[in-house]
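PROTOCOL LOG
Step 1. Enter all chains and additional molecules of the complex.
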Amino acid sequence: MRAVPFVLALVVVACAIFGVGRAIGSSYAFFLGYVVVQYIVLGTAWNILGGYTGYVNFGVTAFFAIGAYSTVALYKLVPAMPLPVMVLIGGAMAALVGLGTGYLTLRLRGVFFSIATLALAVVVQTLITNWDFVGGARGAYVLRPKLAPLIGGEYVQYLFVVMLGLCVIVLATARAIERSSLGYGFAAIRDDEAAAEAAGVPTLRLKLIATTLSGGFMGMAGAPLPYYVTYLDPTSGFNLNYAVNAIAMPLIGGTSSWLGPVIGAVLVGGLQEVLRVTISSAANVLVAGVLMVAFVILAPQGIVGLFKRRPK
Amino acid sequence: MASSLTVANVDAGYAAVRVLEDVSLRVDAGETVALLGTNGNGKSTLMKCIMGIVRPSAGSITATIDGTAHELIGLSTEAIVDLGIAFVPEGRRLFPKQSVLENLQLGAYRPKARAELQRNLDFCFETFPRLKERKGQLAGSMSGGEQQMLALARALMSAPRILLIDEPSVGLAPLLVSRTIDKIKELKEGFDLTVLMAEQNFTQAIRIADRGYVIVHGRIAFEGESAEALNNNDLIREFYLGA
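Step 2. Run joint prediction.
Step 3. Record the structure below.
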């Protein structure tokens, strides 16, 4: 298939990044890398719905936290379960919620859909805050094993590898969508939904596919989080940072292509980490916010849009 | 083989607002029928009912495609497009940020139409040479007349048997209106189509229509069995010609 060379290239890049991390040998490098790659996954997942079909989802934290809390619940039920299985289950839960949300809200268009997703985040947060089994408002501790399985070294290396693998899958999916009739259908919905329907594009079905994929991948991005932070409470799991970054990064990088969220996540995520270390961790959201405003005004097509000119 | 359309006793509306009341009309095989009426009388709603975008509360809509009858009410829009009915929505409704070529490809989104994509594309470019010249251009950057041509061509990409056109004259200069109407006649003959066209521009519409209906406040007020009958009708004088 045409996608094979691309996936192979992604795998090679991922291996190379991991190799560099190993060569540096600092656990900070892995903690930093994890955050950036997590944002690539989260941003790309958001972009499948927000960028390709134009439905802006403000409820990122709902899906992200469903993935994370699914891991907390599984950790309490079956502590020995391998992390990739937890990621799959967390993704499946979030995908189901995505499908349900889509079914309930996709009759709403434009800003009304966005408001409904905002409400979803509040509803899910309230539910989790009041669910004692996963720690409720007190939060839950997850004990991180000391050593990484399979690859050896510190456990954070394993977390990083899992996230890299996820990143390869998500990017391959996003690119495959762009080049398929699915992607054309999404673009038609974004441009003019009524016309898409009149042309025979099955709009409701395509939108449900988009919400399910997007929600599922966001859940997967959140699933390893409890092992990364070791203590998860609703305030941090539903932190506004995740939603702002997941939206800002694709907008800054460019929403029309799979490369956009990657560029946005590396740039903004990297910059945030630098500022966190050099100035203050409070500067994080500020950076994303200011950059987002600047890009919306100066380069609405994002960084990718600056380099891409459509043929006349 | 011939394709025809029958609308019988249709009621429809949006929530509490009743738009269509007991509307019946027929488009026989190979005919061009004009649906005449000024703004807000229910022309577009009727078109949307036929396409399954608005669901009627009563009545039946039957399409006979190549000799087989299908009840359209209850079918999804994409299933109706699959049957061979294409719709040119009011105001053209192109995908402005897609190229001309991409707009045409989206017209052939249904798997059935996709199989014939290249052949239909060649047909469209042959009929509208202008579109071939501009196939890489963004649809939103073309002139109104060109956009209308693209909207017609996009509808033809699904290889329809029945073509519904909602107000082809909207937003066009008078000269372009008459050119568009001529083009519709040419397409109808070239592709052996059955055409239902909603239009406010009475004089232009009856140039190519075999028959016509006048719709007033959601009811069929007059049924003209020929263009002449329409021309000499009092209602038409009252509503259009202001006499």
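Step 4. Note key features.
The mean pLDDT of chain A is 91.
Chain A is about 75% helix and 0% strand.
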